[in-house]
Design brief:
heterodimer; A: Rossmann fold; Rossmann fold; six-stranded mixed β-sheet; 25 strands; 26% strand; B: 312 residues; two-stranded antiparallel sheet; globular; repeat (chain A); cell membrane (chain A); Sugar ABC transporter ATP-binding protein (chain A)
Chain lengths: 502, 312
C-alpha cells in the first residue's frame, strides 16, 4: 500500500497555496505533516481527501493514477479524513451516525437490529466497548466522539486515515487511548497522516515527518534520525532561538489573592496568590476545573464560596464588564467563539474592550482609534496588510495577538490566560511568550492555564495543579519534572496540598 | 478587480439595482421621472423606511421584530384617543412615540432577560398588542382629529415641495447612520450580532444593547404610526398588518445579513426605495395588483440570489 502525491499545485485566485508539492505515504506508518499555519497542510490534505481539486499534479495509489474528484472518490480509494471539528450529528445516536448515508435497510426501512449489531462490533474492534451505540452522539466526550468518527472511517474500509489536530481537545488519558488505537491501526497496515502542532506528540507517536513551508515541500525525515531543532528550522526556515524566551523579573507584591474559591459545581476550595511580575501556571487534566477558576474570577460563573482580593481590596465581580472595570483581563480558551468577532475588522476587534477610551459622549473619535490600533499592530507585531481586514483572514498566531491587543489597550492589573497558544504555530508561540514576559516585567500578575506541560513549566514561576476540581499541589516551577505534575494531576500524589514555596 | 473593489461593488448592489429599475421605468413610463411623482414615491416609502431603520438594528443583532405593525397600530390608537380627549397634540404625539418605545422595551426585556427567542417573543407581542389596539378602539377607526399640527406631521410640505414624512425619513436615516457608524453603541450592536459570547466576555453589556435596540425599533414603529394616522386623519386598529414583512424585505434587499453582525443603514434605505419604486412604476404601467405581488417577490428573490453569487 503506497500513496504518492506528485507535483501538486493549487492556487485560490491570485494566492498560490501549494507549489509543486510531493508527498508519499506507506501502509503501516504514522506520518506527521508539519508546517506553520498557512503552510498548506490543510489544503494538501483536502486535495487528498477530495474536498479540493489540484490545479496540476497527480495522485497515485499503489502505482495506479487515481482521479479524486470528490470525497466519494476518496472514500472509494480508501482515503478518509477526521477533521479537527468533528462531523457527527449531535442529536442522532452513535449507530445512526456510524451508518449515516449507508443505513442497512430493506425496502427503505432501516434494519435497526442489524445496524446495532454491526455498530457494536465495529466499536468493540477499536477497543471502545464503553461507548453505548444508542447514546446521542452529542452526549459523548470529545474523545469518544473521535472514536466514533474513526470507526466510521474504518467501516468504509479506509486504508489511509488523515487526522487533523486530533488531540487538540483531548485529555491526557484520552490521548493515550487514541495513541494505542493508532498503533493498533498501524499494525493492521493502515497509513495514518498526522497533522499537529504538538512536537512532543509527534516525536512520541510518528515514524516519519514531512514538512511544508509557504506552500512548498521542504523535506521528509525519519523521526529516529531527526530532532526538535531541525524540524523547527525546516518549518520556519530559520533558527527561532529559544523556544521559551527567559524572563528576568523578580515577583513583587501580591496583586491577586484567592482563598477557598468554589463555584459549587466544578471547583472547590481553591487558594493561591499571584504577585506582580509573576506567572502562576494552572495545570490539570481536561475537566479538572482549570478554566472554571478563570471563569469564576472573571464573573462568568457564580462564586458560591471563598474570597478574592485585588491589590489588597476585596473583589466581588458578577459580570465580565465588572471584572474589566476592576482591572482584570481574560484571554479565553476558544478564540473563534469567545475571543474574536469574526467578520469584524482587526481594528474593531482590537478596540472592542476599551472603545470608550477613544470616545466622548458615546461618539467614537475615529482618528484616535485608528492611531491606537496602528501602534498596537506594530508593538505586538501583528502581521496584517491592513487594520481594516476581516480578522478571520489572519493566521492563528496573529489572531491571538489581536486578542491580546484588545486586552492590552489599557494595561490590566491581572491577566488571565486560558490556553494562550492553542492553534498557534511555533514562531507565533515564541512571540506570544515574549508578550507575556513584557507584561510580567511591567508588573502585571498573570494566571495561565495550559494543557501543554512544557509551556506551563517553562513560563510559570509557580504551578497550581488541579485534580477533579480540587488543588492537589502548588509547586515552585524550578527543578520540577513532568512526572511530578502528572502525579498531582491524576491524584496519585494524594490529596494533601503540597506547597514548595511560601 | 481586487477583492476590496469587489466588496465595494457588492455593497453598492442595492443602489445599482435601484438605478437600473428606475432607469427602466423612466424609459417605459413618461410619468415616472417627474418631481411630483418622485416626491410621491418618497412619501409612500417613508413609513416602511422608518420601520425598516429600526428593523435593521434588530436584524444586525441576529434578531427579528414581528411586532412592528402592531406597535404602529396601538400607538396610533393611543395618540388618537389622547387627541380626542383634548390633550395637546404635540404632547399626545410624543407620548405615543414613548408608548411605542415602551412596547419595544418590553420586547427587548423579554428577549434578553427572559432568554426567549426573538421570533417567539415578538410573535406573542404582535398578537397581544394587536388585540389591545382592538380593545382600546372598540374595533373601529377613531376619526375627527382636528389638529393642524397633527395633520402637518404626515400630510404637510416643507417649502411647498418636500413632504414632511420624507424629511422625517431623511433625518432618521442620518441619525441611524451616525449611530451605527460613529458611536460606541453602534459598534456594540455589530459586535453583539457578530459574536454575542465574545462581546459579553469583552465587557459589552449585551442585554442592555438588545433592550435599547428593540426599544428603538418600537419607537420607530410608533413614529411610522404617527405619519400614517396623520395622513389618514384617523387611527385604524388594524393598520400596519403585514408591515413587518415589508420592513424585513427592505432590510434584506439592502444586504443586511439575517444571521447578524453584517449590514448597513444605507442599504436599507435603498431597499425601501426599491420596493417603493417598483410599486409606483408597476402602478403607472397599469400592471394588475395581482401580478405586482408576483413581480415584487421575484425581485426580492433575484436580489438575494445575486447577492449570494457575488459573495462566492
Amino acid at each position: 500500500m503506497k500513496v504518492s502525491m506528485r507535483g501538486i499545485c493549487k492556487a485560490f485566485g491570485p494566492v498560490r497555496v501549494l507549489e509543486n508539492v510531493d508527498f508519499s505515504l506507506h501502509g503501516g506508518e504514522i506520518h506527521a505533516l508539519m508546517g506553520e499555519n498557512g503552510a498548506g497542510k490543510s489544503t494538501l490534505m483536502k486535495i487528498l481527501s477530495g474536498v479540493y481539486q489540484p490545479d496540476s499534479g497527480s495522485v497515485e495509489v499503489d502505482g495506479q493514477a487515481v482521479a479524486i474528484r470528490s470525497t466519494r472518490d476518496a472514500e472509494a480509494a480508501g482515503i478518509a479524513i477526521i477533521h479537527q471539528e468533528l462531523n457527527l450529528i449531535p442529536q442522532l445516536s452513535v449507530m445512526e451516525n456510524l451508518f449515516l448515508g449507508r443505513e442497512p435497510s430493506r425496502f427503505g426501512v432501516i434494519q435497526r437490529a442489524a445496524m446495532r449489531q454491526q455498530a457494536r462490533a465495529q466499536l468493540d474492534a477499536l477497543g471502545a466497548s464503553q461507548i453505548d451505540v444508542d447514546a446521542e452522539a452529542g452526549s459523548l466526550s470529545i474523545g469518544q466522539q473521535q472514536m466514533v468518527e474513526i470507526a466510521k472511517a474504518l467501516a468504509m474500509d479506509a486504508r489511509v486515515l488523515i487526522m487533523d489536530e486530533p488531540t487538540a481537545a483531548l485529555s491526557a488519558r484520552e490521548i493515550d487511548t487514541l495513541f494505542a488505537l493508532m498503533r493498533g491501526l498501524k499494525a493492521r497496515g493502515v497509513a495514518i497522516v498526522y497533522v499537529s502542532h504538538r512536537m512532543e506528540e509527534i516525536f512520541h507517536i510518528c515514524d516519519k515527518i514531512s514538512v511544508l513551508r509557504d506552500g512548498c515541500f521542504v523535506g521528509e525525515r525519519v523521526i529516529a534520525d531527526t530532532g526538535f531543532d531541525e524540524v523547527v528550522k525546516l518549518m520556519v526556515g530559520r533558527e527561532i532561538g529559544d523556544r521559551f524566551p527567559g524572563r528576568d523579573v523578580l515577583p513583587g507584591a501580591v496583586r491577586l489573592a484567592v482563598r477557598g474559591l468554589s463555584d459549587g459545581r466544578h471547583i472547590d476550595g481553591i487558594s493561591f496568590e499571584a504577585r506582580a511580575g509573576e506567572v502562576l501556571g494552572i495545570a490539570g487534566l481536561m475537566g479538572a476545573g482549570r478554566s472554571e477558576i478563570l471563569n469564576t474570577l472573571f464573573g462568568i460563573n457564580r462564586r458560591t464560596a471563598g474570597e478574592v482580593w485585588l491589590d489588597g481590596a476585596p473583589l466581588d465581580v458578577r459580570s465580565p464588564a465588572a471584572a474589566i472595570a476592576a482591572g482584570l483581563a481574560f484571554v479565553t480558551e476558544d478564540r473563534k467563539s469567545q475571543g474574536l468577532v469574526l467578520g469584524m475588522s482587526v481594528r474593531e476587534n482590537a478596540t472592542l474592550v476599551h472603545l470608550d477610551s477613544y470616545a466622548r459622549l458615546g461618539v467614537v473619535n475615529q482618528a484616535a482609534e485608528q492611531a491606537a490600533v496602528a501602534q498596537q499592530i506594530s508593538q505586538l507585531r501583528i502581521r496584517t496588510r491592513d487594520a481594516e481586514l476581516d480578522v478571520k483572514s489572519l493566521s492563528g498566531g496573529n489572531q491571538q495577538k489581536v486578542v491580546f491587543a484588545k486586552w492590552l489597550a489599557k494595561p490590566p492589573k491581572v491577566l488571565l490566560l486560558d490556553e494562550p497558544t492553542r492553534g498557534v504555530d511555533v514562531g507565533g508561540k515564541a512571540e506570544i511568550y515574549h508578550i507575556i514576559n513584557q507584561l510580567a516585567a511591567a508588573g502585571v500578575a498573570i494566571v495561565m492555564v495550559s494543557s501543554e506541560l512544557p509551556e506551563v513549566m517553562a513560563m510559570s514561576n509557580r504551578i497550581l495543579v488541579l485534580h477533579e476540581g480540587r488543588q492537589t499541589a502548588l509547586f515552585d516551577a524550578a527543578n520540577l519534572s513532568q512526572e511530578d505534575i502528572m502525579a498531582a494531576a491524576t491524584g496519585t500524589a494524594g490529596h494533601d496540598t503540597r506547597t514548595t514555596q511560601d | 478587480m481586487t477583492a476590496q473593489q469587489k466588496a465595494t461593488l457588492q455593497k453598492l448592489g442595492p443602489f445599482i439595482a435601484l438605478l437600473v429599475v428606475s432607469g427602466a421605468l423612466a424609459i417605459m413610463s413618461p410619468d415616472f421621472l417627474t418631481v411630483g411623482n418622485l416626491m410621491n414615491v418618497m412619501r409612500q416609502v417613508s413609513i416602511n423606511a422608518l420601520i425598516a431603520f429600526g428593523m435593521t438594528l434588530v436584524i444586525l443583532l441576529g434578531g427579528i421584530d414581528l411586532s412592528v405593525g402592531s406597535i404602529l397600530a396601538l400607538s396610533s390608537v393611543c395618540i388618537a384617543l389622547m387627541i380626542q380627549s383634548g390633550l395637546d397634540p404635540v404632547l399626545a404625539t410624543l407620548l405615543g412615540i414613548g408608548a411605542g418605545a415602551g412596547m419595544g422595551f418590553a420586547n427587548g426585556w423579554i428577549i434578553s432577560k427572559g432568554k426567549v427567542a426573538p421570533f417567539i417573543a415578538t410573535l406573542a407581542s404582535m398578537t397581544i398588542l394587536r388585540g389591545l389596539s382592538l380593545v382600546f378602539s372598540g374595533g373601529s377607526p377613531i376619526t375627527g382629529l382636528d389638529s393642524d399640527f397633527f395633520q402637518m406631521l404626515g400630510g404637510g410640505y416643507v417649502a411647498g415641495l418636500v413632504p414632511v414624512p420624507v424629511v422625517w425619513m431623511l433625518l432618521m436615516f442620518a441619525g441611524f447612520w451616525f449611530l451605527l457608524k460613529q458611536t460606541v453603541f453602534g459598534r456594540h450592536v455589530y459586535a453583539t450580532g457578530g459574536n454575542e459570547e465574545a462581546s459579553r466576555l469583552s465587557g459589552v453589556k449585551v442585554d442592555r444593547v438588545k433592550i435599547w435596540v428593540y426599544t428603538l425599533s418600537g419607537a420607530m414603529s410608533a413614529m411610522a404610526g404617527v405619519v400614517l394616522t396623520s395622513r389618514l386623519n384617523s387611527a385604524q386598529p388594524t393598520a400596519g398588518t403585514g408591515y413587518e414583512l415589508d420592513a424585513i424585505a427592505a432590510v434584506v434587499l439592502g444586504g443586511t445579513s439575517l444571521t447578524g453582525g453584517r449590514g448597513w443603514i444605507f442599504g436599507t434605505l435603498m431597499g425601501a426605495l426599491l420596493i417603493g419604486v417598483l410599486n409606483n412604476g408597476l402602478n403607472l404601467l397599469g400592471v394588475s395588483s395581482f401580478y405586482q405581488q408576483v413581480i415584487k417577490g421575484a425581485v426580492i428573490l433575484l436580489a438575494v440570489l445575486l447577492d449570494r453569487a457575488g459573495k462566492k
